[in-house]
Amino acid sequence: MRIKIIVPLLTSKYNSAVQEDIAPYIAPDVSVTVVNLDFGSPSIESRYDEMCSTPDIVSKIVESEKEGYDGVFVSCVSDPAISVARELVDIPIVGGFEPAALSAGMISKRWGIITITQSCACLIRDLATLAGIHQQLACIRSINQPIDELHQAPGKLEEVLLAQIKKMVSEDRVTAIVLGCTGMMGMAKYLSREMETVGMPIQVIDPSAVALGYLQMMIRAGLTHSRLEYPKLDLRERDMSCVK
């Protein structure tokens, strides 16, 4: 099995950390390739960023199918370009939001998301409404730190996330939490352990871990997106295309 991971940034500086972070969740018979964008927004933290990056994300998904990959994970909790790409390829595609959110709904009836910026929170709220799971989503909190600042000060991200999660449990009364950015690598297990030590045992969900587990399951089960929901679009019938 071959999986392509698209990290929708204009830099490869996080790729080795991504490979290390996902390793425990990849089956022995699965090979993974991590790529980045050639053009678009430096990162996806708003609707405008998503619009700018969508053409290259879609191009890379189409390219992945041509190269024989079995599935694609777009490593972003705003699920950018997923719906668009499903009209063009047959292989399964997942982003960071939907698998994690649906998993949260399986283990909790009142869950929350902690993300990086308020603009990301707005994107996530739209996704929850579109997926029909917004009634279970008790809160979305932001730590007000863009992606480039997440790992600048060692230990700072853990401290900020832990403080917000404690508030989400005590004030918002959530019983499970989804990390709202795939850049929060390696945080979920640590945060779950720390919360248990203070008498607040709560599941903190890593979106990358769940998305990759779900994608591997889909491939093994022969599942992909419905053609009744995402009718196949033939670009050869179009006069122009923004997809390479």
List keywords for this structure.
single chain, 244 residues, alpha/beta, Rossmann fold, 2 domains, 8 helices, 8 strands, globular, Iso_Racemase_Enz_sf, Hydrogenase expression protein HupH, amino-acid racemase activity, Hydantoin_racemase-like
Please write out the topology.
Elements lengths: L1 E6 L7 H8 L8 E6 L10 H20 L4 E4 L7 H5 L6 E2 L2 H11 L3 E5 L2 H14 L5 E6 L13 H15 L5 E4 L8 H10 L5 E3 L1 H15 L23
Parallel strand pairs: 1-2, 1-3, 3-4, 5-6, 5-7, 7-8
Helix pairs in contact: 4-8, 6-7
Family: Belongs to the HyuE racemase family.
Protein name: Hydrogenase expression protein HupH
GO molecular function, one term: amino-acid racemase activity
What does this structure look like?
The protein is globular, with a radius of gyration of 18 Å. The mean pLDDT is 93. It has 244 residues and is α/β, with parallel strands linked by helices. It folds into 2 domains: 1-94 and 207-229, Rossmann fold, CATH 3.40.50.12500; 95-206, Rossmann fold (3-Layer(aba) Sandwich). It has helices at 15-22, 47-66, 82-86, 97-107, 118-131, 156-170, 188-197, 207-221; strands spanning 2-7, 31-36, 71-74, 93-94, 111-115, 137-142, 176-179, 203-205. Helix content is 40%, strand content 15%. Helix 4 packs across helix 8 (207-221). It contains 8 helices and 8 strands. 41% of the residues are buried. The protein has a 4-stranded parallel beta sheet with strand order 2-1-3-4, sandwiched between helices. It has a 4-stranded parallel beta sheet with strand order 6-5-7-8, with helices on both faces.
